[in-house]
Amino acid sequence: MAVIxxxxxxCLPPQAxxxxxxxxxxxxxxxxxxxxxxxxxxxxVSAGIGVRxxxxxxxxxxxxxxxxxRIDALVVATTSPERICPAVAPEVAARLELGDIAAxxxxxxxxxxxxxxxxxxGLIAAxxxxxxxxxxxEAFTTFVNPHDRSTRPIFGDGAGAVVLRRGEAEEAGSLGxxxxxxxxxxxxxxxxxxxxxxxxxxxxxxxxxNVAADEFFLHMEGRAVYEQxxxxxxxxxxxxxxxxxxxxxxxxxxxxxxxxxxxxxTVAFELGLEPEKVAVNIERLGNTLTxxxxxxxxxxxxxxxxxxxxxxxxxxxxAGLSWGSTVLRWPQLNTRxxxxxx
Length: 342
Hints:
Elements lengths: L1 E10 L3 E4 H4 L7 H8 L3 E4 L6 H15 L7 E5 L11 H7 L6 E5 L5 H14 L5 E8 L19 E10 L7 E8 L7 E2 L5 H6 L16 E2 L1 H23 L8 E4 L4 H11 L10 H4 L6 H12 L7 E8 L3 E8 L13
Parallel strand pairs: 4-5, 4-6, 11-12
Antiparallel strand pairs: 1-7, 2-3, 6-7, 8-13, 9-10, 12-13
Helix pairs in contact: 3-4, 7-8
């Protein structure tokens, strides 16, 4: 038995914000942002568009890509929930008319899509589902301090989705082994301090107490996060290649989480991977957290750069700290643009 990727879809909110616009009011310049991150613009949610709407569109496109295949379970990976309770996945399932299926959210920050792949594979291997819809959806720009030049320029919004089904190991689209890890001892390097039960308990559960407003936004220790991302992604990617018995020369594409172009380049260098095999779309989308890997796969497929039968190395790193990698052989898929229009 194997898990086969058989559908792919994406969705981007229509509002594009370039570096010129986002640098207004910040102590920075468009050139500084691009030189440090590789980002020139990003998409941001606006009134009437949130995680639910992005997830619904991306999910519908993935199902269409899979030929309208019946879905047995839905997993939504997100770091920017619309509400603390309930999960958004049951709403998405209802809007997609998937029936009374299992539907739940999970969070592992920017590693969430890789963790979601492993979770979906587990559901299929356990016989709980034959087909799983996995969606990575984010409106994380709403969790970023608009006055913080170290985080505001980095993030963008969007959703990407895949359909996974039970199949045979020799089929194109088969997922390989996984490498997953975490280090909670460094959790404060990338965190939103307030808003959860820890903060509510400190204030007696009533209001926000004396919690500063900026505690409800992301805090990041950039240099330390950079170093951890490079080290963890490189080690995880190498571990999964070793388990799959793939040589570096056999890898056609390295699809890494789109956090920072310098991280991707350094990880590739550490692995001894040719620069032209590093897939990038961060320049126009920014860091879309759980959505970045499926949106990048969709872009590669649409451009014709990703061909059926090619070997793909996938790796991600995020808050937690968390990281994960996997490999797959790319299938022949019908894909469409991730723009908001139907």
